Amino acid sequence: MSKKTKKALRPKARLPKGMRDVEAAELRAVAEMTEKIRAVYERYGFEPLDTPAFEYTDALGKFLPDQDRPNEGVFSFQDEDEQWLSLRYDLTAPLARYVAQNYDALPKPFRRYQLGPVWRNEKPGPGRFRQFMQFDADTVGTDNVAADAEMCMLAADAMEALGIKRGDYVIRVNSRKVLDGVMDAADIPPEKRLTVLRAIDKYDRLGIEGVRQLLGSGRKDESGDFTPGAELPERSANLLLDFMTTDIPAETEAAEGDVLVKHQVSLMEREWPGLDTPEFLEGIEKIDRIRQLVAGCGFGTDRIRFDPSVVRGLEYYTGLVFEAELTFQVEDEDGRPVRFGSVGGGGRYDGLVSRFKGAEVPATGFSIGVSRLYAALKALGKIETGAKHGPVVVLVMDHDRTADYARMTQSLRAAGIRTEMYVGTAGMKAQMKYADKRAAPCVVIQGEDERARGEVQIKDLIEGAKLSEQIEDNVSWREGRPAQFSVPEDEMIEAVQSVLARYR
């Protein structure tokens, strides 16, 4: 076989479209972030659950926000029995299958939380990936609006546990029943309603003009791809847009009794006569009930409030819907203002478990988009962006004495010090370069001379780097050996601990 043929057989090192590698600093920061969220979920009494990465395709259903057929918006494959399976597109559909499968054994209501990756076979774009993390909490088995109110309070507490101060976030609440009433008033036929809801759901990302295009003839994005619109008459589109941008004054929401209900109904009746269906009024009543419940627990309208533009794009929502929005603004690399918007959302999905059971099993839940929230926290300065210190590195000066270096390494680990022994085959110069690349705070050195004296040398690499900027020639460096000192071997642990203590 020729060299040319061998080269042609080599695979190309490349990432699949819409995927990304996540490196150590971000992984550690995300772990710290999700641990704070987990503590809130636990405090609310939710229990952890883990479901498989893929399910039978028919179990996932046809609920994706941008696709109506199950094999279009998900990654699918066939098993040995020629049954179709798909990677989960969210954590809610697998939960519905789990509850239906274990219904009799579970306490009702059943409360669970789950952290894990999900996959969507959609067009990737800036900040839009085909694999991403979600962190969900759900209550299954009750239609009590108190469960929805808890989701809103849980979302607010999670934001504050992450260091996002009041005024920099808001939990926005609406109802699909209210939206259905508005679409009735706007004379929107049933076959167009899902398209309309998905158009409104893009308000946070596309703004009012983008939604207007999607309600009309359609919209072409920056790449040239065209999304067909709902083709609504101008009157219908205007009514929807007016509803979306209705601003309920904070003092009205905070008023006693059912003022919000009366205010909203009177507003709708002025604009759209006949908007008084039982379903619409039920939606308004439940929004007001949430307001009363959260206000009674000390959550004001600065944290949780009604917003008519909240829709949620997934088809399975049946009632109340809510979103966690970040309201602060930062600048991008070009100095342009950036607002992160929604970092999580959820709502009531009373029909999802019933697909398996045949009887209605009400449920409500909230999901945090982990990657988007991480990016927002980083921009807000709540995520440590500097390089973390790596492990202490024990250099191997004599490979015949590897067992001795391994013993020294283990003694440091036993003292709770993150430590690694150099396991390559290079000499000291290369080992020092390796320690620098690992961001080691210090290295432990024991050559033949140190061993004979029963000592080790500790070299503080952080202090050494600072001092090296002040030394003008190699002679001074060799004579001074900045930040390098010797200690008896039995004092090695205390010496390393003293170096680490400088940089906590």
Automatic annotation (TrEMBL):
Domain Aminoacyl-transfer RNA synthetases class-II family profile: 1-391
Chief place where the protein resides: cytoplasm
Signal peptide: none
Self-association and partners: Homodimer.
GO terms, molecular function: ATP binding; histidine-tRNA ligase activity
Gene field: hisS
Binding site for L-histidine: 90-92, 120, 134, 138, 312, 316-317
Gene3D superfamilies reported for this sequence: Anticodon-binding domain, Bira Bifunctional Protein, Domain 2
Protein name (database record): Histidine--tRNA ligase
EC annotation from Swiss-Prot or TrEMBL: 6.1.1.21
Places the protein is found: Cytoplasm
InterPro entries given in the database record: aa-tRNA-synth_II, aa-tRNA-synth_II/BPL/LPL, Anticodon-bd, Anticodon-bd_dom_sf, His-tRNA-ligase, HisRS-like_core, HisRS/HisZ, HisRS_anticodon
Organism this protein belongs to: Dichotomicrobium thermohalophilum
Gene Ontology CC terms, in alphabetical order: cytoplasm
Family stated for the protein in its record: Belongs to the class-II aminoacyl-tRNA synthetase family.
Domain of life: Bacteria
Protein keywords: Aminoacyl-tRNA synthetase, ATP-binding, Cytoplasm, Ligase, Nucleotide-binding, Protein biosynthesis
Transmembrane region(s): none
GO biological process, one term: histidyl-tRNA aminoacylation
Keyword Nucleotide-binding: yes
Annotated catalysed reactions: tRNA(His) + L-histidine + ATP = L-histidyl-tRNA(His) + AMP + diphosphate + H(+)
Record PROSITE patterns: AA_TRNA_LIGASE_II
